[in-house]
Amino acid sequence: MSAAAGEIDRVVADAGRPIVYELSRVTKTYGRGAIHALDPVDLTLRRGSFSAIIGPSGCGKSTLLKIMAGLVPPTSGRVVLNGTPVMGPRRDIGMMFQQATLFPWRTTLENVVLPIEIRDGQAAAKASHASARALLELVGLAGFEDVYPDKLSGGMAQRAAICRMLVTDPSMLLLDEPFSALDELSRDFMNMELQRICLEKNATTFLVTHSIPEAVILSDVVYVMSPRPGRFVEIIEIDLPRPRTLDMLTDPRLADYVRRIRSLLDEGAFQ
Ligand SMILES: Nc1ncnc2c1ncn2[C@@H]1O[C@H](COP(=O)(O)OP(=O)(O)O)[C@@H](O)[C@H]1O
Ligand SMILES: [Mg+2]
């Protein structure tokens, strides 16, 4: 099922779960109006849902994510998370980027508890070691708590970054191409891990990606964005059973979704 951008409420109404995130008519221009990054964007996310946004490079995906995270103010429009407007960085939001950016002079465990140390100080960070260890176990990094990042592979470093994102127990996860620096096999595997962790935590997740199969295999809903200024050209609900598995990558239903999204992106590219 799909809907034009204006009909988004109809799509999300099907989920029957409470709304956690609401963006209304959010726009963004940079450089005193010189760069028009986002056209009005409306977005409604429901608790526990997994959504992905896909679009050409430079269309405004990261801008949208930063606005959702409270890192960049919108030029106009409203952003509401868990009933309160997003005016700046928030405790209930976890973010992850393309690079893990672990500090080389801190151990894995010390990197994971860093957000707590910054927020609440060293004693609080120390008190959170047990939950950080449990998270490291959840992502398969038990035994690597006390090593330094140069001993971790790219995939392991990204797992540590997942733990760092989860350590403050955010209800909302914002991911900006988190695994795009990994080789394809590690990336597929990490995506399945991500799905498992999101299901286990009942997290609401919003993923920026430029991989169409990745968007489809992970998501309940895929938002297809136009070239800059970004707007949603189509909202596609992915009707595949959960949990998703890697063998679904060869499922004809997945191939249909991929083809459809590719043709939408191709159309956009030549407009
Ligand atoms: N801080 C900034 N100042 C000026 N222009 C920016 C800034 N951040 C992004 N842009 C511009 O806004 C557009 C959208 O960027 P971005 O959101 O990073 O796109 P995407 O993540 O889809 O590749 C691009 O043209 C980019 O050059
Ligand atoms: Mg980007």
UniProtKB/TrEMBL annotation:
Coiled coil ranges: none
Pfam families xref list: ABC_tran
Domain ABC transporter, chain residue ranges per copy: 21-252
UniProt-listed Gene3D superfamilies: P-loop containing nucleotide triphosphate hydrolases
Keyword 4Fe-4S belongs to the record: no
The keyword Glycosyltransferase is assigned to this record: no
Top-level division of the source organism's lineage: Bacteria
Keyword set, alphabetical order: ATP-binding, Nucleotide-binding, Transport
CDD domains: ABC_NrtD_SsuB_transporters
Gene Ontology terms for molecular function: ATP binding; ATP hydrolysis activity
Family under the similarity heading: Belongs to the ABC transporter superfamily.
Protein name: ATP-binding cassette domain-containing protein
Organism: Aurantimonas aggregata
